[in-house]
């Protein structure tokens, strides 16, 4: 299934966001790509040369505000779930606060798996240009389980460029508690409770360029588990 540039709205009549979300969801379900649906912030319907052959997904398509104050968790969960392989996720140089209502947990899971920002089982996706951070950062007096800001799980050829990911802060996360779990249980635990800025699990050919991974919830702000060929260039990661 493909949609080419002749199916696009004109710049003065951009495709309405609910319909755009529906098309993106259909493409993801079909495993297809969206051809020629590229746009930069503020130029809906405009095709850029770089994006001409790739679908460009934006948080605003799913209702995210990106004002650094509103809780955009639900919108970003939907976005990462819907983004098809072969697409570009353009954060539009905005800052997205997530997990604002999550209190953390001493036992059990901090959040359901369905409430985590998780890119799973996809390939050839480029994430670029923006910040996603856990709201209300700080240090917890006692260790609490807290979701990782972004999880890349079972993916191939994923790139991050000019992206900042920030966890909630020290003692918000407990990756060590997953040490005795089996491989399947551990990959889920790290997403729900690890507290990392970015965790990469069972993935390969992952690239980060000019990115920042800030605040360490438990073991590391940037955590790699059972993955191959993960490379960072000109990146910063909090110790």
From TrEMBL:
Tell me the InterPro entries matching this sequence. Pectin_lyas_fold (IPR012334), Pectin_lyase_fold/virulence (IPR011050)
- Superkingdom of the organism of origin: Bacteria
This protein is called Pectate lyase superfamily protein domain-containing protein
* Originating organism: Azohydromonas caseinilytica
